[in-house]
Amino acid sequence: KAIRRYSSSRKTIQEMEEEIASYR
Amino acid sequence: GVAKAIINLAVDGKAQNRSYERLSLLVDTVGPRLSGSRDLEKAIQIMYRSLLEDGLQHVHLEPVRVPHWERGEESLIMLEPRIHTMAVMGLGSSIGTPPNGITAPVLVVNSFEDLHKKALEALGKIVVYNQPFVSYQDTVKYRTRGAVQAAEVGAVAALVRSVTPLSIYSPHTGMQEYQENVPKIPAACITVEDAEMMARMASEGHQIIVHLKMGARNLPEADSFNTVAEIVGWKYPDEVVLVSGHLDSWDVGQGAMDDGAGAVISWEALSLIKDLGLRPKRTLRLVLWTAEEQGGIGSLQYFLLHKKNISKYSLVMESDLGTFLPIALQFTGSEEAKAIMKNIMCLLQPLNTTQLLDGGEGTDINYWIQAGVPGASLLDDLSKYFTFHHSQGDTMSVLNPKEMNVAAALWAVVAYVVADLEEMLPRD
Fold first, then answer.
1. A23 at the B interface (CB within 8 A)?
2. Residue B426: which residues within 8 A CB-CB, separation 6 or more?
3. B357 forms bridges with which residues in the sheet?
4. Which helix (H) or strand (E) holds B127?
5. Which chain B residue's Cα is nearest to A7?
6. What region, left, alpha or beta, does residue B214 occupy, with left being phi > 0 and alpha being psi -120 to 50 degrees?
7. CA angle, corner B232, sides to B229 and B235, nearest 5?
8. Are B64 and B299 in contact (CB under 8 A)?
9. Burial (CB count within 10 angstroms: exposed 0-12, middle 13-18, buried 19+), residue B113
10. Mind telling me the catalytic residues of B?
11. Model ipTM?
12. Which chain B residues are closer than 8 Å to A1 by Cβ?
């Protein structure tokens, strides 16, 4: 079940929010 | 931005009303698409060709063995206290009656508890369930388990009040299940009106006798297919966002709302993205399931075949609750994933649908969700859904092209953005 790639994620939630905002 | 471009194309642009038109072409041509029927296979072939013509990638069919149940001729006549021909619809997987039918007195009950209280009266009778409609989830057990419970106390058939909040003398079919070591008895649904009338007659002390005839047959399994198409991701092509609806339906109405429309807006999501020349980082995979109505048969086959790649599925999406005006996206996933999805929903401000609710689910995606993959389902205005569900009323006339535009736009934005994020949605 676990996704190894995410467990070593480089991104914080705040960075994700910024990334998503770029799709506006 | 990308989200706005998708929304504009779907709602005001060249693609407006396209999903409605595609659906009408399919369901007006083929009609309802019961598992195991030639009509379902015709629909699958039409969709396969259409997806190829649409220019999607990796269009292919994945074989599935599916149940093959046929309804046959059906009739239900009240003989006592008066002659009255009643609307009836056999339930999926039910056996038929003997060729001459069954004539028997009726025992009306309003719940399983009521049936157990009256158990000694049930022998040799046809049990009529007049259960009130509470919610689909609470009430559907009378359809799925009604025959088994009635057979356990010696009944010879079960007639279940249709599971619907509103009736204009409409029977609503659906799946029912037998149980090992319990005799199989015929099971059918009747209208709310007739169930209530028989309850009143019984409470007034009338003896009710009915004659039930059902030509239902369970045939050997048939060949069918899940229909698959993709937009292959440019950066992480082996990672997947799965977008889906089911192509099969019951054998009544047109199966337009359940779930032709869900299948078509899922196709539309990929078409919108392709038409804009967009290609997300990971693969967008469209799956049109077969034999959902028989209990998620096609989707189970897909899960068993592809579960080895479960770590590569970022999100599984299914639309199977109509495509009326969207209210929210329902989502099941980790708290971190939920926070990300809430942000994505903000992109849908132009559609005025930014709510993210818990409880993302669907018969066809639940295998993945239960295994830990984030899952999303479309929640729309359900006020009409269960009124038409599994009935002759499930036709194009229920649907609204503008509402479908909005549903398709929401579906496409969510699928695209999740597929294009640098990282997959996090799991617990």
1. yes
2. A3, A6, A9, B334, B336, B337, B340
3. B330
4. strand B126-129
5. B426
6. beta
7. 160
8. no
9. exposed
10. 292
11. 0.73
12. 310-311, 371-372, 427
